[in-house]
Amino acid sequence: MFLVESKAGAIGCMLVSLLLLGTWPALLTLLERRGRLPQHTYLDYTITNLMAAFIIAFTFGEIGSTRPNFLSQLSEDNWPSVLFALFGGLMLSLGNLATQYAIAFVGLSVTEVITASMTVVIGTTLNYFLDDKINKAKILFPGVGCFLIAVCLGSSVHTSNAADNKLKLDTLSNDNKNEAGHEDTSTSRELNTTNINERNDLESGTTAPKKAEFGTACFLIELEDKRSIKVSDRSIFFGLAITMFAGACLSLFSPAVNIATNDQWHTLKDGVRHLTVYTAFFYFSISCFSISIILNVSFLYYPLLNLPKSSLRAYLGDWNGRSWALLAGILCGFGNGLQFMGGQAAGYAAADAVQALPLVSTFWGILLFGEYRKSSGKTYVLLVAMLLMFIVAVAVLMASAGHRKK
């Protein structure tokens, strides 16, 4: 079994985990905005997420002379710890599933900030006490306070940006009406003629389709028409409620794995060895996979949020974007595994610093999806304040890292 024992090695695991965990939600968002059903995407993601756990268990969990290794623990009487690992997988599965729907309503950047901040506020506090206070409390808890402030700023950014988008759409609607309140038919005919000409040009190969500029009302309308989850008629508080539920679930999976690997509650019989981080992660991923399969197969036939019905046959035949969904599962699986490897060495409370993943997600959200383009000055100020507070919080959390005794 390979062990990360140094603080530098633990921080290295956290940084790589940060990049991976900040990227996979962007891939799922990309597919949802292209119209792929989230049930199809999540089933693909779940398969490779489990595959990552197998790869980690049979490589890092088996190499080296340190014992116990992964395979030897599968036959031991360690079921109390296994149950904690299974519970952690359940929480992650529900949290990630809710996150996928929350991103459609709240946006990639703000969703990741709110869920990550809640994970730190709740999960880091639990991990601090579970780890026998090996992290520096005078540094750790001011960082937790900064994350809590980031949650409030994230909600404000979403509310402000939603108001900006509503104003853009209202302005476009008013521009298409004449002074008497009726639609300007000449404008409508002109738009229809333009669309017909564009289609004819496309068929003849003489021009490229025109795309609406990021941040404009036309872009918002096009996006709503393409995406699989329709959000225009939903309250902003509905999206925030899903986001808060996702954050509450995600805040519990790391403490559960902490208990599974360190047995702070002394549930194992005398002489039974603690689960290695690789064995715990394996059971954790099995649980996550099982719950995801059950829920998403059900959602194929009984979809949420007025999504169209699907079937297993339709899912198996849907190859549009499947490679991106499979890649997302690999990234998430290795990201979680590296987070646990770093947490076992430097304390799970410090490992929660990987919740800086919204910094990566915000980069992808702005670069790929045009989030916050042409928004108001108020929204930009809140967005910058949110990210700055988040950076400070993560830096403080990293500084609180300790070293677990063997």
TrEMBL record:
Instruction: Give the membrane topology, semicolon-separated if more than one.
Output: Multi-pass membrane protein
Q: Where in the cell is the protein located?
A: Membrane
What keywords appear on the UniProt entry? ATP-binding, Membrane, Nucleotide-binding, Transmembrane, Transmembrane helix, Transport
Top-rank taxon, per record = Eukaryota
* InterPro entries in the cross-refs: UPS_plant, Ureide_permease
Q: Which sequence ranges are marked TM in the entry?
A: 6-30, 42-61, 81-98, 105-127, 139-158, 236-260, 280-302, 323-342, 348-369, 381-401
Q: Which GO terms describe its cellular component?
A: membrane
Where along the chain is composition biased (Polar residues)? 188-207
| Compositionally biased intervals (Basic and acidic residues) | 176-187
Question: Region (Disordered): which ranges?
Answer: 173-207
GO MF assignments: allantoin:proton symporter activity; ATP binding; uracil:monoatomic cation symporter activity
Q: Which family does it belong to?
A: Belongs to the plant ureide permease (TC 2.A.7.19) family.
According to UniProt, the name of this protein is Ureide permease 1-like
